[in-house]
Amino acid sequence: MIMFITFFPHFYDECSPREASAMEKIKQFLGPSVVLGGTASLYAVGLVSAMTSLLFVLGLYISGIVPENAYFPRAWYRQNIFMSLYSLYCSENVGYTYLRSLLHQRQAVPHSDYRHGVRLLSGEQVTPSPFPPHISEGSEFHRRGGGTVDLRVLGEMCRAGRYTGVVVVPVPVLRDNYAYFILSCKTGCCAVVDPADPALVLYMLQVVRHLMRIDFVITDILTTHKHWDHAGGNKELLDMSVASGENSCPLLSRELNIYGSVIDKPHACNKLFNGGDELTVADGGVKVTALGSPGHTQGSAMFLVGDAFPKDGEAQRLALFTGDSIFCGGCGALFEVGSVDDILKTIDLFNDSNTWRHPVTNVRMHTDDILLYVGHEYTSACMDMILYYHGPGLLHETQAEFAASDYYNNVLKAKEEAKQLRNSRIGDGIYAQVPHDGMEGKVLHLPPCTVPSTLSAERKVNILLSLKRDVLVGLRDQEFSSMTLQKIIYSSKERQNLS
């Protein structure tokens, strides 16, 4: 979803969160003063009429264009129509038909290099890395989750029956979204998460099939929430699946299952679930637990995924597909947060060790073996936002402030690692080998994706998961807006000391 709302405080709130309440009260009138003063000046010099000035101010007010921020009183936002505009965005008649293609324009090529994010959910690294040693051995990112995977070599092993587990492949779509393939090498079937751009998703499936020489078929779609940059491709893929029966080698199953939460009811979903439900996808090869995570939308869900056929003695990992609930370092805009308890639900899920049990073996997984695959390539922006609020300062005396200092250092390190990763571009000639409009003969040098993260990494740097639970519990009896809650989450120095 549109990330600028997540970062409103960065642009509009230049004051320290510790300002005295008197200063806060004064500050909230700066916005109206600037608006009124500016229009009055234009009127005074004769550039606009009094009526035009009045209509401009009224239009600015009722439109909801001005995002909620500390420079306008809260009363300014009570009667504007932002939520009405948001409802239109979510609607089928306006949002799906018109706004979807306008706000979420499709791209001819992936925005990032997917190869850096390919991981196995079963077994140790079974293939050499597709990257040179200075890349594959030089960073913690490329070693996490058992290490990167060469899909060509993996395909050879799968065809020989030497690997029958599950592999996750990121699919960069739109401007900065991620869809994901969850491939079962045992069944030859595939589930896909949030395939908002069907054309690019199906092309990338052809790339995977070409590399692995296995004709994977999409049998299931997992939809994290209702926004069009996640659910906007469901209907197209459903329509294509019906027509695919005439194809001797279809990319889509004719019996395509499209999953979404019963609360959100994302577009074209024919299988609805509740939080906590267990699903089986990819023709039985993949087990999924749906986890409710309200806030970004009331029905936002995360999917905890594991191999349905784990072998005794074989290392296992779980993949968590978070949508817009959690990003690498950050969290999604709280468009539909109903109360602090909505956010606490997500925090409690992450803090409960029972959440991280393997869906088949019931074994509690180590936090290093929980791979987080998020909905957007927002890692650098999230780290910048955190550092804006948690810059270096003098030594502090309280334990909470020491924890905040450690937190800053953890985030600074993560930001530098993400920067180095995004700058380590390695050409990929596969796009020249698999026919696709506009990419014939091209070798693409794309910035590497920064997924997956891990649960252990996010507990150290994530702005929500590192927050002490008591901070939000203390807000239960207070009135607040979603923007105020977002600011508290980002600015609070009360951080768990997990360095």
UniProtKB/TrEMBL annotation:
Keyword GTP-binding: no
Co-factor requirement: Zn(2+)
EC number: 3.1.2.6
InterPro entries: Clx_II_MBL (IPR035680), Metallo-B-lactamas (IPR001279), RibonucZ/Hydroxyglut_hydro (IPR036866)
Record's keyword terms, sorted: Hydrolase, Metal-binding, Zinc
Membrane spanning stretches: none
Pathway membership: Secondary metabolite metabolism; methylglyoxal degradation; (R)-lactate from methylglyoxal: step 2/2
Pfam families (UniProt xref): Lactamase_B
Recorded superkingdom: Eukaryota
Reactions catalysed: an S-(2-hydroxyacyl)glutathione + H2O = a 2-hydroxy carboxylate + glutathione + H(+)
Family: Belongs to the metallo-beta-lactamase superfamily. Glyoxalase II family.
Protein name, per record: hydroxyacylglutathione hydrolase
Organism: Trypanosoma congolense (strain IL3000)
